[in-house]
Amino acid sequence: MVHREVLMKKKLIGILIAALFVWNGYLTYSLINLENKPTTSTDSSGNTETQNFVSNIESNVSKVNEAVESKVVSVINKNNGTTIGSGSGVIYKNENGVISIITNHHVIDSGNEYSVRFSNGQEETAELVGSDEYSDIALLTVKKDYDIEPFKLGDSSLLNVGEFVIAIGSPLGVEFSNSTTFGIISGKDRVVSVDLNGDGVADWDMVVLQTDAAINPGNSGGALVNMQGELIGINSMKISSDNVEGMGFSIPINEVIPIVTQLEENGKVTYPIIGISGVSISDLNSFNLQYYGLKQDDKGVFIVEVTKGGPADEAGVKQYDIITSIDGVEVTSFKDFRRILYSKSVGDHVKITVTRDGASQEIEVVLK
């Protein structure tokens, strides 16, 4: 009886072991098939099935980079023959033996001679067509018959946060030219304050794209590219701090092209004038606030002087008026005022709200 129970137990154990081997084989087979099988997803219409491999990201980045790397160049800035800096640039046009290259204003600033090194290693003399410090955009041309396709321009207004992008440029100098980094669009319509005159005080706001694709010194003027290989931004700056990682900024291509068009046509960017000198109330000291009868919490631009015969003077704007809005957009500082003004064009009619003797009134001004 005991012998029979032992035999039954051994038989049962054998069955369990066999079952475990079968189950293990099934799991192994399923895992192998899962690794090799593409994942599927369906769009909101329920009609389109897409197949995505994990390796697709790596493959797509390589293909995009291969397609566009020749369209990115290194820009060398010289002063009287001495190299004073370098950056990157993108090929915007290639027509009739003239190659047009977009870069940053700060890449060519303080120089009087420029050269461009192409991805094939050839270095050519470049001519500065014009630049604009407010938009931080410059345009160079190289007279050379190279068979290089210019960038296809994307639409930066259609970008989505989280969308994959690559940044291409020459970080830390031409020896690292055509370096590529990969990341996402981290934010749109970011407002970054910059100091244009080097006095340590921010005097201009730039509207930029934020990306975590690494942007280092020398990347300035380089390309931010979407996964269709389209140019969607000009890399411009990064936040550099021990406490900050992966915060680079790029000028949206939709903001760049109108500036470049003006540079092509006129060699400079023309901004409208209104004919006033002003200061942010927040920048006035306590003595000036008291002298002009202002309060610490007042906001706006205090008009120090009105240009005689200028647009503001002709419209009836007075000295010591306080500008509080333009076309319904609140103005709290001179930075706000200048940014809104420079978004307008010569000949535009703008409605300026001013405070005079404690009362608010609206004045229409024709910009010149």
Automatic annotation (TrEMBL):
Keyword Protease in record: yes
Organism domain of life: Bacteria
Listed GO biological process terms: proteolysis
CDD domains (UniProt xref): cpPDZ_BsHtra-like
Transmembrane segments: 12-32
Protein's name in the database: Serine protease
Domain spans labelled PDZ: 278-358
Keywords: Hydrolase, Membrane, Protease, Transmembrane, Transmembrane helix
SUPFAM superfamilies documented for this protein: PDZ domain-like, Trypsin-like serine proteases
Any Pfam family hit: PDZ_2
Entries under InterPro entries matching the protein: Chloro_Bact_Ser_Proteases, PDZ, PDZ_sf, Peptidase_S1_PA, Peptidase_S1C
GO molecular function: serine-type endopeptidase activity
